[in-house]
Every structure is written in C-alpha cells, then in structure tokens.
UniProtKB/TrEMBL annotation:
<keyword id="KW-0472">Membrane</keyword>
<keyword id="KW-1133">Transmembrane helix</keyword>
<protein>
    <submittedName>
        <fullName>Peptide/nickel transport system permease protein</fullName>
    </submittedName>
</protein>
<feature type="transmembrane region" description="Helical">
    <location>
        <begin position="235"/>
        <end position="257"/>
    </location>
</feature>
<feature type="domain" description="ABC transmembrane type-1">
    <location>
        <begin position="95"/>
        <end position="304"/>
    </location>
</feature>
<feature type="transmembrane region" description="Helical">
    <location>
        <begin position="285"/>
        <end position="307"/>
    </location>
</feature>
<dbReference type="InterPro" id="IPR000515">
    <property type="entry name" value="MetI-like"/>
</dbReference>
<feature type="transmembrane region" description="Helical">
    <location>
        <begin position="130"/>
        <end position="160"/>
    </location>
</feature>
<feature type="transmembrane region" description="Helical">
    <location>
        <begin position="172"/>
        <end position="191"/>
    </location>
</feature>
<feature type="transmembrane region" description="Helical">
    <location>
        <begin position="9"/>
        <end position="30"/>
    </location>
</feature>
<keyword id="KW-0813">Transport</keyword>
<dbReference type="InterPro" id="IPR035906">
    <property type="entry name" value="MetI-like_sf"/>
</dbReference>
<dbReference type="Pfam" id="PF00528">
    <property type="entry name" value="BPD_transp_1"/>
</dbReference>
<comment type="similarity">
    <text>Belongs to the binding-protein-dependent transport system permease family.</text>
</comment>
<keyword id="KW-0812">Transmembrane</keyword>
<feature type="transmembrane region" description="Helical">
    <location>
        <begin position="97"/>
        <end position="118"/>
    </location>
</feature>
<dbReference type="Pfam" id="PF19300">
    <property type="entry name" value="BPD_transp_1_N"/>
</dbReference>
Length: 316
C-alpha cells in the first residue's frame, strides 16, 4: 500500500511538472506583445523595452520558465499586468465564488442523479426508466449557459424571485450569497446530473446481475435491501469517478456561466485575462485548473481503494 502510494505521488509530481511546462510554452507562443498591450500602441520603443525588461520578457524561455516555476513553489505567482496586484490574491479572491458554486452544483447533481439512476436501474425497462432516460438525454443535450439564460428569464425577469446576476459578496450574508449562486448552480448541475444519472443506472444494472446480489435475494433479502446494501455500494467506483470529473469540470468550465450571471469567479478571471493578454494571470489560472484536475483524479484514485476492497488485493 505504501509503495503504490509513493509511486502515485511521484507520478502526480511528474505530471504537474510536464503540464506546467506545456502551459508556459503555449502561453509564450500566443500572438501579441504583453508590454505593448499594457502600454498601448503609442508607447515609444524605449519605454516598451524598459517594460519588457521589467517583466522579464527579455530573458530566454528556459530562464523565464524556471523563474516562474520557482515562484510557484514558493507561493509567489507573480504580479498581474492588468490589475497590478499579486496573482495569488486574485485567484484566492475569485475562488470564494467559484468554489462554492462548484460545490453547490456537485451536490445538486449527485442529489438528483444518484437516486434517479438507482431507481431507473431498479425499474429497468419500465415507464419510470424510460422517462428518466428521456429527461437525462435532454439535460445532457442542453448547454449550461442556455439553461442559465432561461432561468434568468423565468425566475428573475418574469417571476422576480431571484437576482438576475452579480454577486453581493459574503459580507452581505450567507443567504444573500447562496441566493446569488443558486441559479448558476442549477444551470451547471442539470447537464451534469443527466450524465451522472446514466452512469449510476448503468453501474447499478451491471452489479445487479452479479452472483452475490442474486444470492442475497435467494436468501430472502428484499429487493430494496439487496439493492442498497449490496448493489449500490459495489457500483460506486464509476459513480465516484464521474463525480470527481464533474467537480473539476464545473470549476474549470464555469467560464460561460459566470459570464452569463456576471459572477466575479475564477472562470470570469480567466476570460478577462485572456481578453487583456495578461500572460501572468492566464498561465497561473490555467496551471491552477490543471493542477486541480490532476489532484482530484489522484484523490479519486486513492478513494477507489477505500470503496472497493477488491482493488487492494496484491497492493503493498
């Protein structure tokens, strides 16, 4: 067990290093001069050269990459060209919106999808299964930003129940903050709930055909008890995999929804930094997204060993 944990941690570190190098190289290849964007087209060549030196853009690519990587290890993500503040503070500030939004969306997705998927598997080929299948396919096909626009029209414009966008800040109170994130969370959760419903249904159906489930029924265990005590726990591996993927997707993929609802989150920061050609912010935000995906997948991989003891066979 310890040896496989060490191997996976080493693999995690190597993957993060490779990803960081790719991010830095790709960002460097983007067209445009960051110094010219900051100063404008009317800046003199001498001023541009001075700013490029201040930004470190006159250094070779390997030197700039190692300096950036060393800063990341120290927690220094650099200074934003546009905002004039440390990037670490920007990311931390925007995470106070994006992280609760993603958590709300994941909880909604799991709360909707797992019960529906399990019941659809239980009533396989019945009317309930058909209805759940149709609804899940529709929710998968509908883009999250479109759900967001419809929810604004219905719940904000027509009914006036919810705010149409913006975020008052957590200083305004927990209820006000959650209310501002409710519609965006629903917009993010519905398409993901459709995917997770199909995964949960397929996983439970696959397990229900195993011998130990049939044996439990033959011993007199009720259908519901056999389902929740034996089938569902053993079907958790693909479900947990999908939940982990959804969480990282919801954080990294909230760009459109945050722009629809005008939320000052990490996705909106990524969009703004791309539009303003703020290279430092762009590469740090993309690195954060990538590291989050890698780390969550690593944790999900370890969670497999907890959920399914069969995976621990032969692990030392």
């Amino acid at each position: 067990m310890i040896s496989i944990l060490i191997r996976r941690i080493l693999s995690l570190i190597v993957t993060l290093l490779v990803v960081s190098l790719l991010i830095f190289v790709v960002m460097d290849l983007l067209p445009g001069d960051p110094a010219a964007i900051v100063l404008g087209t009317s800046a003199s060549p001498e001023t541009l050269a001075a700013l490029r030196t201040q930004m470190g853009l006159d250094q070779p690519l390997p030197v700039r990459y190692l300096a950036w990587l060393w800063g990341v290890f120290q927690g220094d993500l650099g200074q934003s060209y546009t905002y004039g503040v440390p990037v670490a503070g920007l990311i931390a500030e925007r995470l106070t919106v994006t992280l609760p939004l993603a958590l709300m969306a994941v909880l909604m997705s799991v709360g909707i999808a797992v019960p529906l998927g399990v019941q659809a598997a239980k009533k396989h080929n019945g009317m309930f299964d058909a209805v759940v299948g149709a609804v899940s396919y529709v929710s998968i096909a509908v883009p999250a930003f479109w759900v967001g626009l419809l929810s604004i029209i219905l719940f904000s414009t027509l009914l006036g129940w919810m705010p149409a966008g913006g975020f008052p800040g957590w200083d305004a109170g927990l209820l006000a903050g959650l209310q501002a994130l409710l519609l965006p969370a629903i917009a993010l959760a519905l398409p993901q709930a459709g995917v997770l419903t199909r995964v949960a249904r397929a996983a439970v159906l696959d397990v229900m055909n195993e011998d130990y489930v049939r044996t439990a029924r033959a011993k007199g265990l009720g259908e519901g008890a056999a389902l929740w005590r034996h089938a569902v726990p053993n079907a958790l591996v693909p479900v947990v995999t999908m939940i982990g993927m959804q969480f990282t997707f919801l954080i990294a993929g909230a760009v459109l929804v945050e722009n629809v609802f005008n939320l000052p989150g990490l996705g909106r920061l990524a969009y703004q930094s791309l539009a303003q050609r703020d290279i430092v912010v762009m590469q740090d935000v993309v690195l954060f997204f990538s590291a989050l995906v890698i780390v969550v997948n690593f944790l999900v991989d370890l969670l497999y060993l907890v959920i399914d003891p069969r995976l621990r066979v032969g692990v030392r």
